[in-house]
Amino acid sequence: MRILLVEDDPDLSRQLKLALTDAGYAVDHAPDGEEAQFLGETEPYDAIILDLGLPKVDGVSVLERWRRENMATPVLILTARGAWSEKVAGFDAGADDYLTKPFHTEELLARLRALLRRSAGHATPNLSCGGLRLDPRAARASVNGEPLRLTSLEYRLLHYLMMHQGRVISRTELVEHLYDQDFDRDSNTIEVFIGRVRKKIGADRIETVRGLGYRLICPEDEMGAETAGT
């Protein structure tokens, strides 16, 4: 999952980028409204964290333009304490949620998970596909109760596939949502990571749809066993 962090405070930006990366996200950073506006219009993000008090172009104006361009990416806005009018303006501009500074990083991560979950149509905090489980809160996954040892990129790949299970996802889409802007992207490496994840979760769970991409599927026998056990 790929996140755009828009924050002009250098210390807070470093802190949040580290926390987001540790939580399993690919993170791009924009220090002002002008760059944020450009990145939001040209790069595909799963969610955006947007400070409203930005240099060059304020956050509300950036968000209004994004929404005029029909950009549906969920946006979490950051506002100054006591600035209730900023919150109202942010929601009216198209924000999905907000946090007031100062805040706990854990709360930001929880709100971000909720935004991503709702945008993908998931009601529960954990993701499941038969015996495959993924807990975004702990950035961990398991198969039939056995923990999986995943690298950061393997985890991002599995997370994205599970968020969109049943849908065919192209290699290009995976590249755009697994790597940050500065990563040396190569769509051929996706095949390598698909192969590694298949070995860890079972080859029959990720289907190759020739000429189109990949699809995460839930084996019917596991689904039946899971239903019977509930």
Description:
There is one protein chain. The protein is α/β, with parallel strands linked by helices. It folds into two domains: 2-119, Response regulator (Rossmann fold); 127-228, Orthogonal Bundle (Arc Repressor Mutant, subunit A), CATH 1.10.10.10. It is 44% helix and 20% strand. The protein contains nine helices and eleven strands. Strands 2-1-3-4-5 form a five-stranded parallel beta sheet, sandwiched between helices. Strands 6-7-8-9 form a four-stranded antiparallel beta sheet, with helices on one face. The chain has a two-stranded antiparallel sheet with strand order 10-11. β10 and β11 form a beta hairpin. α3 packs parallel to α4 (84-93) and α6 crosses α8. It is globular and about 50 Å long. The chain starts with a strand and ends with a helix.
Secondary structure layout:
Blueprint: E1 2-6, H1 10-22, E2 26-30, H2 33-42, E3 47-51, H3 59-68, E4 75-79, H4 84-93, E5 97-100, H5 105-119, E6 127-129, E7 132-135, E8 140-143, E9 146-147, H6 152-163, H7 171-178, H8 188-201, E10 206-209, E11 213-216, H9 220-228
Parallel strand pairs: 1-2, 1-3, 3-4, 4-5
Antiparallel strand pairs: 6-7, 7-8, 8-9, 10-11
Helix pairs in contact: 2-3, 3-4, 6-8
Keywords: DNA-binding, Phosphoprotein, Transcription, Transcription regulation, Two-component regulatory system
Pfam families: Response_reg (PF00072), Trans_reg_C (PF00486)
Modified residues (4-aspartylphosphate): 51
